[in-house]
Write a structure and sequence with these properties.
heterodimer; A: 338 residues; alpha/beta; FAD/NAD(P)-binding domain; 22% helix; elongated; B: 106 residues; alpha+beta; Ubiquitin-like (UB roll); two-stranded antiparallel sheet; 5 strands; 15% helix
């Protein structure tokens, strides 16, 4: 069990800056994110897209913004728990017991939800029949590529994940690549390679096809694909891989007993606390009259939520407002010379 | 101003007047029409405002810009009638546009 002053759910820009604000006022925190990297939507959805509305930063990309935020909180040495998701929140006296999907447990008076639109999950096949093979022979990510050796592998998708794996697995497996249109969004070099492998009959390429059904008694045997004219084909299959990108789902947050307004959490704008004492919501996931889904709003919300955490984390102390330009205590925390 | 008809997957019809300059996605969100999530808020970074537009209207819409088809690859059951509604700007020319909503967005 890890004891801390606050657990931040979500390592996007809002969560990162809130961590900074906690550090500035002398509180500790632990940051949990479902993705395998820091940065949230900025890094997952638009790392290369320029952002023009960060105050005093005329232009920066999602990746640059993330890197600068990481640099800004470096002095505090907070722990990140990536590839992990907060599953359960339970109240115990004045603390929240926070459990993650990897089995980590935190005890904290404060939980700050900075979860954006929820956690990123792979988009799955729409076909019901794919569900019963989910995790065994229908997969959305690859942990151990050796399982595919000498097998028939059907890969769906048109982005780099699909193309990379089609190229890689074609060395030792019978690979078919299926994509819903003629154009691929993957890198040009990958697309060229796929076309070469297809011409040499190393990869079976089916464009303008999508999945219709998966079949098998006990284990997977066949995949049926269809085109828009309704023509279908049956392919022998040991494994089916789907790479359709990530979707965002609210996930377990919906089960924590918080008031929800559709998919967002109403908060008190004095401290961004939710209807539960010690649980705060900031960034895209919170709502209040006038809410703007801007990164800069998330920064403001995080600064106030951090102050809101202080009284639960240090019930016997009085919070004192200080400027970073003037406070020696803050400079010590940042590790800079006063 | 254009009257836009949104048809839910269940067949339920919503007809709303949408101001010029707004997108078809915004027309749905502002009028609480279920079936369009628009998680990313209109920055063409997700595929949760996916709609189907039948041929009669599809060809009259401004063509897809770069990137829209890439995002549509990640939508739920896309086909050749698919569009992202955040990329369709409303103008008088679109009066009477009908869009069909998919069974779900995620």
């Amino acid at each position: 069990m890890i004891k801390t002053d606050a657990v931040i759910v979500g390592a996007g820009p809002t969560g990162l800056f809130c961590a900074h604000q906690l550090g500035i006022i002398g509180l500790k925190c632990e940051i949990v994110d479902n993705l395998n990297k820091i940065g949230g939507q900025c890094i997952e959805l638009y790392p290369d897209k320029p952002i023009y509305d960060i105050p005093a930063v005329p232009e920066c990309t999602g990746e640059e913004l993330t890197n600068n935020l990481i640099k800004q909180i470096k002095p505090f040495k907070f722990n990140f728990h990536l590839n992990d998701r907060v599953q359960e929140l339970n109240k115990e006296n004045d603390s929240w017991i926070v459990k993650t999907s990897n089995g980590k447990v935190f005890r904290t008076p404060n939980v700050i939800i900075a979860g954006g639109v929820g956690s990123f999950e792979p988009r799955k096949f729409p076909t019901k029949s794919a569900e019963k093979f989910d995790g065994t022979s229908v997969l959305y990510s690859i942990k151990d590529k050796t399982i595919f050796k000498n097998k028939s592998v059907i890969i769906f998708g048109g982005g780099d994940s699909a193309l990379d794996w089609a190229i890689e697995l074609s060395n030792n497996s019978k690979v078919s690549l299926i994509h819903r249109r003629d154009e691929f969004r993957g890198a040009p070099a990958n697309v060229k390679k796929i076309k070469e492998l297809s011409e040499k009959n190393i990869i079976n390429l089916f464009t303008k096809y999508s999945i219709k059904d998966v079949k098998g008694n006990g284990s997977l045997e066949q995949v049926e694909i269809k085109n828009e004219e309704g023509k279908s084909k049956i392919l022998k299959a040991d494994y089916v891989l789907g790479f359709f990108g990530l979707i965002m789902q609210l996930g377990p947050i919906a089960e924590w007993g918080l008031n929800l307004d559709k998919k967002v959490i109403p908060v008190n704008t004095a401290n961004f606390e939710t209807n539960k004492k010690g649980i705060f919501a900031i960034g895209d996931i919170c709502t209040y009259p006038g809410k703007l889904k801007l990164i800069l709003s998330g920064f403001h919300e995080g600064a106030l939520a951090a102050r809101g955490c202080f009284k639960y984390a240090r019930p016997n102390e009085k919070y004192r407002f200080e400027f970073t330009t003037a406070s020696n205590t803050i400079k010590d925390r940042l590790g800079v010379k006063s | 101003m254009a009257k836009i008809k949104y048809i839910e997957h269940s067949g339920k019809v919503h007809i709303v007047e949408v101001q010029n300059g707004l997108t078809v996605m915004e027309g749905a969100v502002q009028n609480d029409i279920p079936g369009i999530d628009a998680d990313c808020g209109g920055s063409m970074s997700c595929a949760t405002c996916h709609v189907y537009v039948k041929e009669d209207w599809y060809d009259k819409l401004p063509k897809k810009e770069m990137g829209e088809d890439d995002m549509l690859d990640q939508a739920y059951e896309p086909n050749s009638n698919s569009r992202l509604s955040c990329q369709i700007s409303v103008s008088d020319d679109l009066d009477g546009l009908t869009v069909h909503l998919p069974e779900k967005q995620v």
